[in-house]
Write a sequence for this structure.
């Protein structure tokens, strides 16, 4: 029951923080923050607490496969919505995600998932270079209901993922773990409210964050059984933050 209340508190609090950060520093910063393994860390923590640390460790291969599928989906959505509406793009992208995630999970190869993720991140950074050059995504004023709606959406998604873990098993649970319960609502709402430029900034920031997420999952995989869930996940998050901001700094320097 304590875990349930933590989910109800932490997820909307993170969504609020990222939304306010995007408002203060621009949509690309919001995308960068949403790309950090914030929700991934929460999912892995709750899987460890509710299903055990071995279960969480076994979920990592699925999580990395899911991460590759998510980056492919962001790229698909970004390219597709150049010619279709956000609603059509969103529905089609979710179907696309399910197909790619299924294919990636069947492979079971950590190396393949990591290589695919990094290649997709590279492509996303290239196709969103216009957003980085123009610095167009400063933040579009939003109706008051948008941030609460993001908070509710993110919380419901996290509850759904963790509640289904017991009967899904570690591989499928891992596959669902990196689903961007914060970044996806943020991306869709930013697209609807601010257009394709705002979407590009979110997608770019999230892709940069995905490099750190790879480091997060690998750290959890090698350390959670030896160090325990709290120390392992905390260390993995710190490493992911360092990697993400190092990559962001290198790209800005260019």
């Amino acid at each position: 029951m304590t875990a349930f209340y933590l989910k109800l508190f932490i997820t909307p609090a993170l969504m609020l923080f990222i939304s306010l950060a995007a408002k203060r520093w621009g949509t690309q910063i919001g995308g960068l923050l949403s790309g950090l393994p914030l929700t991934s860390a929460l999912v892995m923590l709750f899987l460890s607490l509710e299903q055990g640390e071995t279960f969480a460790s076994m979920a990592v291969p699925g999580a990395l496969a899911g991460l590759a599928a998510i980056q492919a989906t962001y790229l698909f959505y970004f390219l597709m919505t150049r010619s279709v509406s956000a609603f059509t793009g969103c529905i089609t992208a979710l179907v696309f995600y399910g197909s790619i995630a299924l294919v990636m999970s069947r492979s079971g190869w950590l190396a393949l998932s990591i290589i695919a993720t990094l290649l997709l991140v590279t492509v996303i950074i290239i196709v969103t270079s216009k957003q980085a050059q123009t610095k167009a995504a400063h933040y579009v004023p939003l109706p008051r209901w948008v941030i609460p709606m993001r908070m509710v959406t993110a919380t419901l998604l996290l509850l759904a993922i963790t509640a289904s873990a017991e009967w899904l098993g570690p591989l499928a649970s891992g596959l669902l773990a990196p689903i961007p319960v914060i970044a996806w609502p943020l991306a869709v709402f930013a697209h609807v409210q601010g257009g394709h430029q705002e979407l590009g900034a979110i997608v770019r920031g999230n892709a940069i964050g995905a490099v750190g997420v790879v480091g997060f999952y690998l750290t959890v995989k090698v350390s959670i059984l030896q160090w325990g869930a709290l120390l392992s996940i905390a260390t993995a998050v710190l490493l992911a933050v360092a990697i993400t901001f190092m990559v962001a700094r290198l790209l800005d320097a260019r």
Summary: The CA atoms of residues 12 and 151 lie 4 Å apart.
